[in-house]
UniProtKB/TrEMBL annotation:
UniProt xrefs under SMART domains: DAGKc (SM00046)
Domain of life of the source: Bacteria
Pfam families: DAGK_cat
Family: Belongs to the diacylglycerol/lipid kinase family.
Keyword Transferase assigned: yes
Species of origin: Streptomonospora nanhaiensis
Keyword Ribosomal protein in record: no
Alphabetically ordered keywords of this record: Kinase, Transferase
One term of GO molecular function: ATP-dependent diacylglycerol kinase activity
InterPro entries: ATP-NAD_kinase_N, Diacylglycerol_kinase_cat_dom, Lipid_Phosphate_FormReg, NAD/diacylglycerol_kinase_sf
GO cellular component, one term: plasma membrane
Cofactor(s), names only, from the UniProt record: Mg(2+)
Domain DAGKc residues, every copy: 1-135
Protein name: Diacylglycerol kinase family enzyme
Length: 311
């Protein structure tokens, strides 16, 4: 088997020494080429070219942003070429997609599991989400957020550019700071889906392709606990943003059951083929923890069995 190993050298939790160990282990099992990313969306370009260069497998080492870029590259494989399979190894601070697949969060353990799957021929397919706007046509692996969480992601990216390390603690601190300052208390969103009545005046909307939405350290955060790769998209949206109710919802998200299907202060929809979110004014928008910009309207679609995974 011929494989391309796409490595993000800026990944939060990897070092040159650990990357060398992984490369050595994988290269003993297959013909391996290694490419390091040098700029944003470089992983996407490398993955898009992989099929034309004869690779059967693309492996990534990085966080959820690297995974998203590689997936988007693979999904735009030129027509007529066989699309390579994908294996993701954890190198970021959260690694939500990898952990949602049930794979080890430790890169050494994850590499071992991936190599066992290669030897046994184990493959599975997962569904993805797709975002369509006037400016975007992209796939997401686990979530898309409009409003509060995207504001946090945007601020984390700015902090990283100043040299600060991304961590679950930083995300939580910034989310709390924005909430207490009232910076996210904007009722501008409207959601609609086929067969459902529109809901207006929402503060925040999240669309998921699996559960959890993210992790607080080792604890999964589950606003949409019924969301699965094998189903359509799930939606969670806030109709209230007062301190008491928001704190209660956060406690439920951190419980093993997650947020229930019904309750005051929120709307949740399960297994949707399509969801459209609009805003009266531009709001921050993110997919898979990567800020895309401010948007007024996004259409999100479920794409079943879109990606072949090794592991």
């Amino acid at each position: 088997m011929r494989a391309l190993f796409i490595v993000n050298p800026q990944a939060t939790t990897t070092t040159p020494r650990s990357r060398d160990v992984l490369v050595g282990a994988i290269a003993r099992e297959m013909e391996l080429d290694v490419a390091q990313t040098e700029y944003r969306d470089h992983a996407r370009e490398l993955a898009q070219q992989a099929a034309g260069e004869g690779y059967e497998l693309v492996i990534s080492l990085g966080g959820d942003g690297t995974v998203n870029e590689v997936v988007n590259g693979l999904l735009t494989t030129p027509e007529g070429l066989p699309r390579p399979s994908f294996a993701a190894l954890p190198g970021g601070s959260a690694n939500v997609f990898i952990r949602a697949l049930g794979l080890p969060a430790d890169p050494i353990e994850a590499t071992g599991a991936m190599l066992e799957a290669v030897r046994s021929g184990e493959r599975r397919t997962v569904g993805l989400g797709r975002v369509l706007t006037d400016q975007d046509d992209r796939y997401f692996t686990f979530c898309a957020g409009f409003g509060w969480d995207a504001d946090v992601v945007h601020e984390v990216e700015r902090q990283r550019h100043r040299g600060r390390r991304a961590s679950p603690g930083l995300y939580i601190a910034l989310a709390l700071k924005m909430f207490l300052r009232g910076e996210v208390a904007v009722r501008s969103l409207r959601i609609e889906a086929p067969g459902r009545d529109p809901v207006r005046d929402l503060y925040f909307a999240l669309v998921t392709n699996t559960t959890p939405w993210t992790y607080a350290g080792a604890v999964p955060v589950q606003p949409t606990p019924r969301s699965r790769f094998e189903l359509g998209l799930d939606l969670f949206a806030l109709t209230q943003m007062n301190t008491a109710r928001t704190a209660q919802l956060l406690r439920q998200m951190l419980s093993h059951k997650g947020v229930p299907p019904y309750g005051p202060g929120f709307v949740t929809w399960h297994d949707q083929s399509e969801v459209t979110i609009t805003s009266r004014s531009p709001r921050a928008f993110q997919i898979d923890g990567e800020y895309l910009g401010h948007r007024r309207r996004v259409n999100l679609q479920s794409v079943p069995k879109a990606l072949r995974i090794v592991g």
